[in-house]
Amino acid sequence: MKKLTMLAVGVVSAAVVFSAPAAHAREITPDHEIAYALEQVPDGYATSEHTASWPRIGMEMVSSLAITSFAVGSCATGAICAYSGYSLTGSKLSWSSCSTYSTAALPSVGSIANARSSGTLRARNGTTVVATAGAGGQANVWSAVTNVQCS
After folding, report:
1. Which domain holds residue 48?
2. In terms of domains, do 62 and 86 share one?
3. Cβ(80)–Cβ(112) below 8 Å
4. Which run of H or of E encompasses 15?
5. How many domains does the chain have?
6. Which long-range contacts (CB under 8 A, 24 or more apart) does 3-7 make?
7. H helices within the chain, ranges in order?
8. Model confidence over 76-123: pLDDT tens digits?
9. According to the per-residue pLDDT averaged within each range, which of 6-15, 24-33, 81-90 is highest?
10. What's the predicted TM-score (pTM) here?
11. Chain mean position to CA 75
12. Where does the signal peptide begin and end (predicted)?
C-alpha cells in the first residue's frame, strides 16, 4: 500500500512539473476598445488583439476594429458564397479563393454573396451570367445556376 501511495504521489508530481504552459501564456496587446472593456469589467482577459472573454459572466466581446464592412450576411469576409434560398437564406456553399466553382451540391441557387473587398461574383448557367454581385454585395438569382465565377 505504501508503494502504491508513493507511486501516485510521483505521478501527480511529474504531471505538475511537466504540464503544458498556461493557455494565456502568449503575450497579447489588446486594441484600445478591448483594453477599455477589460479596465471597466473585472475578471476578463484578451483572447486576441480584437477579442476578449469574461467566462464567469459568460460574456465575449469583439472590437469594432475586427469587424470589416465586407462580410455579407453569413458569408465571411474574403469569401464568395452561394445560398439555396433567396436573400442569403437556406444552405450555403462558400469558397475562400477566387475561381469558377460548381454549385451542384445545392438543388438550386437562390442568392449569392461576394464578401471580398474587390472584384465581381457571377452566378452562371453554363457560361451565361444570370446574376452579379459586386464587392461587399449580394444578389438574388431568378433562374437556374450551375456555377459561380469570380474575378
Report:
1. 24-67
2. no
3. yes
4. helix 2-17
5. 2
6. none
7. 2-17, 32-40
8. 888 999 999 999 999 999 999 899 999 999 999 999 999 998 999 999
9. 81-90
10. 0.57
11. 9
12. 1-25
